[in-house]
């Protein structure tokens, strides 16, 4: 008689996979990377990085031919900021990171020249780079933003009008520099935008990275930050407002790789209308050499109507026990009835009370941008979203 008291190997799943040997990726840092699109299998939607995305809506960007010619851009002038185009074999390309998925690799394989934004000088300065009406043909782009050691600056990378764009953005922050980068998506209703941002931070440097997604049909902006040297610090912020049928996605990765580094990740979004969808995936990896790390990530979603969906997935990997602290949080919910009651009891109409709650909820992110002019414009844009314009 065969005893079943002890589980068999098959019960534990220790048998060969039906498709052959299969070893899952055990840690975020082990994901495959390449700048060559042919090194990635075609996207099916079952992959871990695509399983929450509407992959059929942008199959041309993940597997088709992309126009990699220069984009039409508009820039503002600022002392200490130089904007130029550089060849794809320039040594300044590839320092911040390389693609982990096929859309980013397709863009990397396709671009002809990269846009270089160089920031220098210790005084504060602001520069805006706008891409407008890129058309409906699939396109590729590559941007490098470089902050010289001890420099200060704010760079706004803005998209408006029509687009079907896959791009990579590299951000290199030099020793002692303080840089703010705002990625602002105000595309037209049918636009599709896939972006991977790679940031590398030098010793005692600071990066404030802000993703604001309001327009577009499908927008997927995935920022990765490498805290590569001691004392580096990142504040990763995000604001999004998904309307009916709109898909807004952010997959955030912070890699603590050096001692005494700090990160704060805060993404907040609102959803209204049938089929409005948001996706937030937050990965924080604290490496075994990252002693003294201080890290926290959170995502908050405010659901304004029925028929919406918000996916929120925080992940935390810790490879050393010698840290100051690490944590994560996620919440998705409707209006706080007590807040509404408080406002309505003071004579405020319900529709106005709801707008006030949303303004306060999203205003935390807007107020941290550091540019009064841009903050005012984004507050007006959020107000327009609430009024359905």
From TrEMBL:
* Gene Ontology process terms (BP): iron-sulfur cluster assembly
Q: Which residue intervals define the domain SUF system FeS cluster assembly SufBD core in the entry?
A: 140-361
Stretches for region Disordered: 1-21
Q: Name one Pfam family in it.
A: SUFBD_core
Question: Would you identify the family this protein belongs to, as annotated?
Answer: Belongs to the iron-sulfur cluster assembly SufBD family.
Record protein name field? Iron-regulated ABC transporter permease protein SufD
């Amino acid at each position: 008689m065969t005893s079943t008291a002890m589980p068999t190997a098959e019960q534990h799943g220790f048998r060969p996979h039906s498709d052959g040997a299969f070893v899952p990726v055990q840690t975020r840092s082990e994901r495959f990377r390449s700048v060559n699109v042919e090194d990635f299998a075609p996207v099916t939607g079952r992959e871990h990085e695509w399983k929450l995305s509407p992959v059929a809506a942008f199959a041309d960007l993940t597997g088709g031919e992309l126009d990699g010619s220069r984009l039409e851009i508009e820039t503002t002038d600022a002392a200490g900021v130089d904007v130029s185009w550089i060849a794809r074999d320039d040594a300044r390309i590839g320092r911040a990171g390389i693609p982990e998925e096929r859309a980013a690799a397709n863009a990397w394989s396709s671009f002809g020249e990269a846009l270089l934004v160089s920031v220098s000088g210790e005084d504060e300065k602001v520069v805006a780079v706008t891409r407008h009406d890129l058309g409906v043909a699939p396109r590729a782009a590559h941007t490098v933003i470089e902050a010289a050691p001890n420099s200060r600056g704010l760079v706004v990378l803005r998209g408006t009008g029509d687009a079907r764009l896959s791009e990579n953005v590299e951000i290199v922050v030099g020793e002692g520099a303080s840089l703010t980068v705002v990625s602002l998506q105000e595309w037209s209703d049918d636009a599709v935008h896939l972006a991977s941002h790679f940031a590398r931070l030098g010793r005692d440097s600071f990066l404030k990275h802000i993703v604001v997604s309001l327009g577009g049909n499908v927008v997927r902006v995935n920022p990765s930050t490498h805290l590569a040297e001691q004392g580096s610090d990142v504040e990763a912020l995000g604001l999004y407002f998904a309307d009916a049928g709109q898909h807004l996605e952010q997959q955030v990765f912070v890699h603590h790789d050096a001692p005494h580094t700090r990160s704060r990740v805060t993404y907040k979004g609102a959803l209204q209308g049938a089929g409005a969808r948001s996706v937030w995936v937050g990965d924080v990896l604290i490496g075994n050499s990252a002693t003294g790390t201080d890290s926290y990530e959170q995502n908050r979603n405010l659901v304004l109507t029925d028929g919406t969906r918000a996916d929120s997935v925080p992940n935390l990997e810790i490879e050393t026990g010698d840290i100051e602290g690490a944590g994560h949080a996620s919440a998705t919910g409707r209006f706080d009835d007590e807040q509404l009651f408080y406002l309505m009891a003071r004579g405020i109409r319900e529709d106005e009370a709801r707008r006030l709650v949303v303004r306060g909820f999203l205003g935390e992110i807007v107020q941290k941008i550091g540019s009064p002019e841009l903050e005012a414009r984004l507050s007006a844009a959020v107000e327009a979203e609430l009024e359905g314009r």
